[in-house]
Amino acid sequence: MATPATPEVAAGKAARLSVILITKNEQAHIQACLESVAFADEIIVLDSGSTDRTVDIARSLGAKVSVTNDWPGFGPQKNRALDLATGDWVLSIDADERVTPELAQLILQELDNPRATAYRIARLSEFAGRWIRHSGWWPDRVLRLFRRGTARFKDVKVHESVQTDQPVAILDGHFLHYPYASLEVFIAKINAYSTEAALHMQARGKTTSVPGIAGHAIWTFLRHYVVRRGFMDGAQGFILACMAASGSLFRYSKLWYYTRQGRK
Question: Residue 178 burial by CB count (10 A; 0-12/13-18/19+): exposed, middle or buried?
Answer without folding.
Answer: middle
